[in-house]
Specification:
This protein is an alpha+beta fold. The protein folds into 4 domains: 4-94, no CATH class; 142-152 and 198-275, no CATH class; 154-194, no CATH class; 282-435, Trna Endonuclease, Chain: A, domain 1 (3-Layer(aba) Sandwich). Helix content is 33%, strand content 26%. It has 12 helices and 18 strands. The strands form 5 sheets. Strands 11-14-15-16-18-17 form a 6-stranded mixed beta sheet, sandwiched between helices. The radius of gyration is 31 Å and the shape is flat.
C-alpha cells in the first residue's frame, strides 16, 4: 500500500491540487476533472464516515482542484485511487493547532472515552490507534468456528490402566505392585489421535477470554446480538473451570494454515494487542473535554480533592418545551467545601489574544456567562471558575467579577492548555500554583 497521506485540520477546509493528488489520479491532465469526480465517488463512504464535504471546484485562475471541508471529527480513513480503485493512501484529519493526539489518546482509556472504529475500512498499521479488544475477539471467534469444522487432530499421550504391559511406566508400577491386587494393573502410556489435545485446549481457553470480552459492557450491542447464538453454541463445548491458563501458544510450521491463523489471533488476545488497523474517528470537542478532565484528575489526586465529571444540575418546575432540563459543566473539583468549576472549549481564543473581532467577543461572552452560571451553585462567597482553551503552551489570565450589591465575587481563570503528553506534568504543576 502506498503511504500517501492527505492531511486536513478539523473544522476547516482545504484544497488539493493535481500535484498533491498525483498518486490518486490517472496522471492525464485532460482527465483531471473526471478523475476528481471519480475519486469523490470511490471514497464517499470514507468521507461520510468523517462527515467531510468533498467537492471539485475551480479557483479564480480556472484551475480545478479537490476541496475538502472537515467537521468536528478527527481520525483516519483509507483513500482509493481513481486510476485503479485500490487503496493507495490515507486521509488524516488532525487538530487545528498541531496537537499530539496520538500520544494523548491512550491516556484517556480510563476516562470513559474511546474512538469509534470501522473495521470494514482497513488502513496502514502506522496510521492508526489500536482498535478496542472486542474487534480482535470477533476475528478470533470467526476463525475458531472455521478451525472447529476442520477437526484438527493430533496424537495425545495419556495414561490408562491396562491388564497387559504396553509402554508401561515401570516406576509407577513398582510403587503399587507390592499389593497383590495391583499385580496385573499396568499404568501404560497410550498415544491416540484425537481432537481433544493440549493445543486445542489452549485455544479453548483463549475462546473463553474472547467470549467474556464480547459480553462486556464496552462491546456494542449490535456485535453482542450478532454473536449471541454462536457464543451459546461454543460455550457448550467446554467448562471454564477445566480450562488451563496459558500466556502464549506456540505456532508450528506443521500446523494447518487455519490453525496458524487462529494461534496468531490467540496470541494477540493473550498479549492484549492487535494487528488490525482500521478507520477511526473521534469527536474533537469531546476529546478536548476528556483531556481537560484527565489533567484535573491528576491535579485532584495530587491535592486530595474530588472531581465530578459532567454533573447534572437539574432544572425543575413548569417550563416551555424548548427550555433546558439541566445544566452540565464539564467538571467540578471540590476540596474541603472549596469548589472549582471547569468548562473546556476547543476554540482559538488563546491564539487570538490580540484580536478584537466581534465574533471572538460574542463567542467569549457566551462562554463566560455559561461558566459563571455553573459556578453560581457554589455556596462560597469567593467563587472560582475556569475556561480551558487549547494553546501551544500553558497560559493563564485571571479575571475577577465583583458584585456591587454584595460582597460576592467570582474569580475566573482563562487557561490555555497544550494538548501533549509531554506537557501534562507541567500543566498540572502550573494549575496547582494558580489554584492553591
Amino acid at each position: 500500500m502506498n503511504n500517501t497521506i492527505l492531511t486536513l485540520p478539523v473544522l476547516s477546509s482545504n484544497t488539493f491540487t493535481m500535484d498533491k493528488l498525483k498518486n490518486f489520479l490517472s496522471g492525464d491532465k485532460r482527465k483531471f476533472e473526471r478523475d476528481i469526480q471519480k475519486l469523490i465517488g470511490l471514497n464517499k463512504k470514507a468521507f461520510d464516515y468523517l462527515k467531510i464535504d468533498a467537492r471539485g471546484q475551480y479557483d479564480d485562475s480556472f484551475n480545478f482542484s479537490l476541496c475538502l471541508k472537515s467537521s468536528e471529527y478527527s481520525g483516519v480513513v483509507p483513500l482509493r485511487s481513481a486510476r485503479t480503485g485500490l487503496i493507495c493512501g490515507n486521509l488524516k484529519v488532525v487538530g487545528r493547532y498541531g496537537e499530539d493526539i496520538d500520544g494523548v489518546l491512550p491516556l484517556l482509556k480510563d476516562e470513559d472515552f474511546a474512538p469509534d472504529f470501522d473495521n470494514t475500512m482497513l488502513i496502514g498499521a502506522d496510521m492508526a490507534v489500536a482498535p478496542p479488544k472486542y474487534i480482535e475477539c470477533v476475528k478470533y471467534v470467526d476463525k475458531y468456528v472455521q478451525a472447529d469444522r476442520f477437526h484438527w487432530q493430533k496424537f495425545s499421550n495419556r495414561k490408562i490402566t491396562q491388564t497387559k504391559p504396553r509402554n508401561t511406566d515401570w516406576a509407577a508400577y513398582s510403587l503399587k505392585s507390592y499389593n497383590p491386587n495391583n499385580v496385573f494393573k499396568y499404568p501404560n502410556n497410550v498415544n491416540e489421535l484425537t481432537t481433544e489435545h493440549a493445543e486445542w485446549a489452549a485455544l479453548k481457553y483463549v475462546l473463553s477470554l474472547a467470549i467474556s470480552e464480547l459480553r462486556a459492557n464496552t462491546t456494542p450491542k449490535s456485535i453482542k446480538s450478532h454473536y449471541a447464538d454462536i457464543i451459546r453454541r461454543l460455550e457448550c463445548t467446554f467448562y471454564r473451570d477445566d480450562l488451563q491458563i496459558v500466556d502464549h501458544i506456540d505456532v508450528h510450521s506443521s500446523d494447518p494454515i487455519i490453525i496458524k491463523e487462529l494461534k496468531a489471533a490467540a496470541n494477540l488476545i493473550l498479549k492484549n494487542t492487535s494487528d488490525i488497523r482500521c478507520a477511526w474517528r473521534i469527536d474533537y470537542s469531546c476529546f478536548f473535554e476528556r483531556y481537560v478532565q484527565y489533567i484535573f484528575a491528576q491535579l485532584a489526586h495530587k491535592r486530595g480533592a474530588r472531581v465530578f465529571n459532567n454533573p447534572h444540575f437539574r432544572i425543575n418546575g413548569p417550563k416551555p418545551v424548548w427550555a433546558l432540563k439541566y445544566l452540565e459543566p464539564d467538571l467540578v473539583m471540590i476540596k474541603d467545601g472549596d469548589q472549582v468549576v471547569v468548562d473546556a472549549k476547543y476554540k482559538s481564543h488563546m491564539y487570538n489574544c490580540d484580536s478584537n473581532s466581534t465574533e471572538l467577543h460574542d463567542v467569549f461572552r457566551d462562554d463566560f456567562h455559561q461558566v459563571l452560571a455553573y459556578s453560581s451553585f457554589s455556596s462560597a462567597q469567593q467563587k472560582r471558575a475556569i475556561i480551558a482553551y487549547p494553546y501551544k503552551e500553558f497560559k493563564c489570565y485571571t479575571t475577577t467579577v465583583c458584585s456591587s450589591l454584595n460582597e460576592c465575587e467570582n474569580r475566573a481563570f482563562l487557561i490555555g492548555l497544550p494538548i501533549s503528553k509531554a506537557a501534562i506534568i507541567d500543566a498540572v504543576d502550573s494549575l496547582n500554583k494558580i489554584l492553591y
